[in-house]
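Cont'd.
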Amino acid sequence: MLRTTGKRAGVALVSILGVAVLTFFITQLLPGDPARIAAGQYASEEQVADVRAKYGLDQSVPAQFAQYMGDFFRMDLGTSIRTDQPVRDELTSRLPATLELGLTALLIAVLLGVGLGVTAAVHRYRIGDRLVQVFVVLASATAVFWIALVAITTLVNGWGIFTSPTGRLPRGFAPPEHVTGLYVVDALLAGDPATAGAALRTLLLPALLLGVLASPSIVKIVRSATIRALESDFARTSRSFGYPARSILFQDGLRNSLLPVITNVGLVAGFVLAGGDVIIEQLFAWPGIGGYAYSSLQENDLFALRGYVIAIGVAYVLINTVLEFVYGWVDPRVNLAEGS
Amino acid sequence: MAVVDAGAALRGNLVSRLRVGNPAAVVAFAVLGTILTLGIVVPFVAGSGDVAQEYDGLLPPSFDHPFGTDRFGRDVFLRCMAAARIDIALGLAVAVAVLLVGSLIGAVSATFGRGVDAVVMRATDVLLAFPGVVLALVITASLGKNPWYAAIAVVIAFIPLLVRLARSKALEVRSADYIAAARLSGASTWQIATRHVLPNSFKYPFVQSTLVASWAILDFAALSFLGVGVQPPDAEWGAMIAEGVGDNLLGSWWPSFFPGLMILLTAASFQVIGDWLDRRLR
Amino acid sequence: MAHRSRLLGAFVASGLFVAAACGSGPASDDGTGGGDGGSAAVDELVVAYSQDIDTLDPHQFKTDAGYGVVGNIYGTLLQESYTDGGDGVLSYAGESAPYLAESATWDETQTTLTFELKEGQQFAGGEPVTAEDVVWSLQRALSDVGYVQAIGQWLNITDAATDIVATSDTTVELHVTHYSPLIEQFLAFQIFAIIDKSAVEAQAAADDPWGAGWLAAEATASGPYVVESRVPGQSMTLAKNPEFTATDLGDAPERIVVQSMPDPQQAFLALQNGAVDVIFGMTPDTAEALEQSDGLELYDLEYSLVAYVGFNYQDPVLQDVRVRQALSYLMPYDALREDVMKGYAGAAYGAVPYPMRDSLDETGEQVAYPTDVERAQELLAEAGYEPGELSLTLSVPASDESLSQSAVFIQSALRDGGVEVEVNEMSDADYNENLGSMQMFLDSWYSWGQDSVYQMFFLLTTGVFTNYTNFSNPEVDELVRQAMATADPDERRALSQRAQQVIIDEAPWAFLFTRDYLVGTREGVTGVTHANDANLRFDQLRVTN
Amino acid sequence: MELVLADIEVVYGKRTRNHAVRGVSLRVRRGETLAVVGESGSGKTTIAKVAAGLQKATSGTVAWQATGDGGVGGGPGGSPARRQRVHMVFQHPVQSLDPSWRIRRSVKEPLRYLGMADDEAERLVRRLIAEVGLDAQILDRYPREVSGGQAQRVAVARALVADPEIVILDEPTASLDQTVRGRILTLLADLQVRTGVGYLMITHDISSVRRLATRIAVMYRGLIVESGPAAAVLEDPRHPYTQALISAVPVADPRVRWDGVVALPRHPDGTLAVTSCPVPGSCHEHGPGLHEVGPDHVAGCTKAVDPQKAATT
Amino acid sequence: MSLLTVRGLSIQTRTGVSLVRDLSLDVGAGEVVGIVGESGSGKTMTALSLLGLLPDGVHVSAGEAELEGRRFLDGPRMLARPNATMIFQNPTAALNPTMRIGAQLVRLLRFLDRSGTDGSAGRRRGDVRERAAALVSSVGIADPAAVLGRYPHQLSGGMNQRVMIAMAIAARPSLLVADEPTTGLDVTVQAQILDLIRATVAQHGIGVLFVSHDMGVIAQMCQRVAVMYDGEVREFAAVDDIYHRPGDAYTRELLASASDHPRPEEVADGTRAG
């Protein structure tokens, strides 16, 4: 157990290092002269040179790389060219918004994915299954920016079901006291259900869009795993004893199909926290790190973009490492060391 | 046995297989075929709709303009069809590139093992640590705004996926009994790789590449939507949606709705075809 | 989409402002125009900007949103005076009034300007505003910490270290080489904001003596508002500064929420459903939609914000004046004003368009090269280009909807005239970095103060770094130089107009149109400032109903 | 020619050091069948792979020795094509044929690598297919289109087509039905008579051993615990494990009373307990040496020399 | 009177392919009746149909069956409690891989308690684990506590089959259906499992329907045997008659192939689809 833990941690560490190195070299290719951008359009050559020196951009690429890796190990992501603030702080301050959106979306994706997957498995090869399959194809072929647009036009502007996409809280509500940074949670902790409700209503539409579009891979996996489990020898054993259908579905079917979901959650989290998030945060004026990344890209803000990419890469590696542990803990078969 | 028209037999066979096997696949082929045909034919016949103020701006869908006109007075239908060429061609090109490069790297990794394999696996680990769109976004930003760069970025983003798949399938095949038999028959490593491993493991990446085409179209549209892919005023579905965002919110839904619908139909068709191939080939 | 509004292009330029050569001494009364209304101070106003507030350092410039907000947090020695036209708009009265200063006095030689500070004025942190703070703030402005240095020469100060002096705790002297009315105009802008020296120095580091890192995110307000809270990337809430005593803030809104809304349509919808009270800088589309909505108000403010296609003189093709003129004749001026700008635009006659003072065009209707395809083709033929032979690249900043839409129309129109154009949409960062090296580019520019000489100096005289076309004409250079040294308004106008005519003939730009400044509000919001710097003064906003 | 495996050790896992095979020596001659018998985990499959050269031994040698029979002989075609020494027949016949190749190409594969001209190879393939009792039509089919029994015949044809010295049979009938199983065994015996090929048969199935083996080696936990002529080992097993193994086979005759099954203590995970030797003072104290218990018959048990003692259980 | 009577059982797939045709057999109380045949002969389908376990797309098309005089058919189980239970080939796969053995036994015991017809209703929860341990030790497992705490993949096939037998017995069935219960197990383990089945059957006096392809196992386990080929029963008779006076050609072939000595004519007749 200890050895596998060490090995996994080692692999994670190597991946994180790789993330750092790759990020450096990709962002090194970014067009434009970051120093000139930082110094501003009206800076003299001397000022630009000063800025270049300040950010260490006057050094050779290997020297910059050494500096960068040193900073990386000190968890220093540099200073934003745009705002002159430490990138780490800027990311941290925006992270709760992204986490609130991403985690809600992830929750929706998992609940929807498991629900539909199990439904399809129970109704396998029949009409219920077909309908779920149609959903899977449509949801995985839908462009997130398009459906977000359609949803805003109809659900928000047309029928007023959801609040206007102007950030995390509608007008008239003050952000709750910072505890977790998740408005809904913080508002509930502060005993302010009205604010919590308003925050949830604002959160719901972007989270739903992300969650629904992220769910197909979970549906597919849950469906096939549940079918496999329900058609397995051990489910047949359960039927031979005459266990009720519900017991077979939960104890034999779902219990065994949730395992592959765990590994898939990593991929879904990637979409929800980064891929789709950049676009959704743009469209919903959501003040998270996705919007930050996009602005940084627009402004060729080398350090901010680099910080974002590293943060996402590292977070992704960590998420997957944690999931591997969870998987090993949940699935007895993975942990072979216990056997002998 | 009488001489039969082999082509007709094959066609009949294919159609009947499709019909019996999967009505969804028939629909998917039909949809994709229609879009592709229109994408090729329409621009020749009616122009590619890139002339501003050819018509009045923001006319709603009608008989003359089935998808309406955009703010520049261009026919949205014509532009959607002109875009179809670019999007589908790019989706397919990305899929083929990913398939070839990914399978090659995967097969090499599986064949040579050890050092090469370890390096390739760590590299894919690292690449997979970045969600596809983010990776593509950063790469495009680095290379510069250009549809080709965006396509390359999408290719790079998907390659690790195919490498993984090709490698694991190649490893699976390599441990099969018939590989042992071939080795005992005197086949060299190269002969085993080219004659047994590749043909038997190729179909999995091949099936996957159909899905890659679907995802590539989505990602490419997303990049264009974010402004780093195809640049307006060139027609591309994602870019068209980006252009139509404002009009959409102010009540003219058609300039952005139809390109999105095209993406949906095309990507869904590739998905269905992928699922169908998956079932047929396994 | 964050910085969709390409107003950045204009306001990058707005860092450079010039004041009209009118104003004599300090203005008469304490006078701000003030809103009518007379109602109690409104509790909260939500103002939407298209960008995020990225820095609070008044000497840094990144976005117009950040810039506009800073002006409400920091006080200056002088401020603009406004006249209330009764239509909800407060217009610049053409002179400056004391603000944090009690008085501003020139000596007889007009080389020393002495400021007496108002008594009892404090920073939000509680520290008194002293002469030392003023000196340090002005020195900081003129240091290399930001871009303001570039305008420093216009204050006629030789050395900031020795020419800005505190003679007592409440007295500051500026020693200048010679008098210029521009000096007072400058000092009314937030680039000469008064900052709490001790607070900043407590945070300054060895490699950052001016505390740029700290000031970017923090502010010790000397102006009417303090930063109450901030959600990065989303909003900033300002509250009335309790320490501010320079003017009476009695009727000013208690709280201003500055909301970042990158998407103009979203902002408009938010205004419609009451989530937002004021939109600063609307697009023509949303302005048009707003005018068709009930319960909303559009403030359509005319400015000399000129949109133009710049022709790079370093390009061999564009060096030929016939080509430049031909291209100018091909531009679809009417379509741009009507279809892109939805009529919220005027004609631009030359580089100094109406309503800039001293413009050759007094009505805003003249066009130098009206659309004329035949004439254009003749000129092209003279220059040796048959239809279809010429193909050019037009760069445009993607974030400015109006400009990128204009590009589509221009591309189409030029194609009709036999010139192929490839449109290159660029991010703001790319675009700004490549200004000066692009073949043809679409840009818009606004000079604070709307002064013709200033405008021509920065855009069209040889060697100036914002001369993005690399236009170089000895006659223009000389005329501008003379005008800058001339105090007499009539003589200055004559020199300016001669230069303008040369520029029109040379056609270094295609002079497309002037853009109106569009502020949308819900009904009853007044006190919108038609300011020299095209910024809102939050303390002037009122709500009546 | 004779295939000689000497002191083969195979260890899996660098850290876990799982001894799959612990010092096994074997020899297989042309014309004879050596059956390696054992239960799962005994290391018999590993031995097969090592003998085939598909896996490297951690230590020990695999070598060919001349036996004086000249190594020349009438192959199926009487051709001097004998350049291949060893081939193999696998447990799962269909899986041992490349699914994307027609049967013809699979059977011909060894000949192609020997550089034989195609028409000659075709003749040889057809002859072999006939010899394994199949119709030539089957050559145009794909593996998925034939039955398990047919596929195994094809596999036998392929194994023999290049006229090897030794064919390794890895559980050749384990996945086949009872009646097919009998026919394949008969075919193998028949082909051995005709071609003089030697078999190294790996199996857990005692009844197929009875049908084919000339010699038997019993493996247990990576060791050979007993080996000798088939009849001797089957009729007079000396090692307690061999006795348990043989006694456990149910006899297909209801009149034969089936009792006296030797129970072997096991751990819950199925591995036999180390103290499984029913005889006190077991070989585990003295090392697993093999002792001569009869003509060419050895057993790795100190008490096995005295059948009286060993049989008491 | 026999315990189990099956008359005219036919099983078909949804597409009409016939898997079992007109099968009749009976099992007496305390009797072990074998079904022997090769793969595809329909023997496993017959066994599964009796417990309503036919896979999707396969159904009983005709026939009837009686257990202890009560009629039932394929489909939802019609009996109030599982008075017929089954053990399977590949016991490791027949147990839920994500539940410890103890939990699976407890699940079964609780279920049996709830269904309550074995007179044990209302037992307290506390003793369920003890009963589970007792069950496990009753099938010859030396260290019940250790086995209950393990997952199926941590136990050998033989051990898992013992657990399956314990579970099958826990339901106090009158009929045990055993579908190739020792196929895939090592021969020495097989001997022990077969011993256990014989002992258990004798102890509880239940009838067994024993499905196998192995003529040796059948010979040693059963009193009567049905020989199946291609969905039909070729011969149903006492085991001694089948082995020594086979009335059917196929039975003779089976016996021949199972014997140690080859018959020369086998080579000639080619191979059948396997």
